[in-house]
Amino acid sequence: MSKRPIFLLLTFLLAACGGKPTSGLSTPSADQIKLEEQAVYAVLLKDTYSSSTIVIMDTTSTDPGGAVGSSSTIGYVLENMHDVDPSTPENFKVRNDKAYPLAADMDLGVQYILLSQDQRNEMFRQNQSGWEVFYHNYPNSPGITELSRVGFNNALDQALVYVGTQSNYLAGAGYYILLKKVEGTWTIDQKVMTWIS
């Protein structure tokens, strides 16, 4: 056999085997991320509130008032947590680079209402008691809740999320929460408070 066919055969085999090395883990699909994110939200809401209706701002945030948090906030959170997979906060930062709309059709295991910033502004406009208006409109709510998008590690068994709730002018708190998935179920692992009023 001549050298040319062997060379062509080897070139073909190398090309077929080449490309990116695989780690054994497939990249999760957008639908898989969406379902896992809803499962994380459902665990948080069930753990945090006993109310029958949750009022959630319709866009994500990582700080009170709809803001996107700073890297110093994430640094503080990570200093006060242990056993955090480095890919989890990295994914959190990427997924929370700005505010994103929350879907109205999420399956969270509880009844919820999405509140727009315009609706919030209308209730809290000048010369009226905003919280009285809010509780008149949503009598069974624990207040106004803000959620971030969920950051996941590469294995999709660790999650980091921000949740904050304001229930009156000087009553509220925000937490970064680390969750882990054990035997297919998300559970809260650690919490770090980042603000209180």
Structural overview:
With 197 residues, the chain is an alpha/beta fold. It starts with a helix and ends with a strand. Residues 5-24 have low confidence and may be disordered. Strand 5 and strand 6 (171-182) form a beta hairpin. Strands 1, 2, 3, 4, 5, 6 and 7 form a 7-stranded mixed sheet that branches. It has one domain. The longest helix is centred in the first third of the chain and has 19 residues, at 30-48. The protein has 6 helices and 7 strands. Helix content is 34%, strand content 26%. The protein has helices at 3-17, 30-48, 71-79, 87-95, 117-123, 130-137, and strands at 53-57, 111-115, 144-147, 151-152, 158-168, 171-182, 185-196.
Query: Which residue ranges are poorly predicted, with pLDDT under 50 across at least 5 consecutive positions?
Result: 5-24
Characterize the biggest β-sheet. Answer: 7 strands, mixed
The domain tally reads 1
Radius of gyration: 22 Å
The string of secondary-structure elements, in order, is HHEHHEHHEEEEE
Distance between the termini: 82 Å
Strand content: 25-35%
Tell me the total number of β-strands: 7
Mean pLDDT reading: 85
Tally of helical segments: 6
Label the overall shape: globular
Structural class: alpha/beta
Q: What proportion of the residues is helical, as a percent range?
A: 25-40%
What is the compact description of this entry?
The chain is of the alpha/beta class and 197 residues long.
SSE layout and pairings?
Layout: H1 3-17, H2 30-48, E1 53-57, H3 71-79, H4 87-95, E2 111-115, H5 117-123, H6 130-137, E3 144-147, E4 151-152, E5 158-168, E6 171-182, E7 185-196
Parallel strand pairs: 1-2, 1-3
Antiparallel strand pairs: 3-5, 4-5, 5-6, 6-7
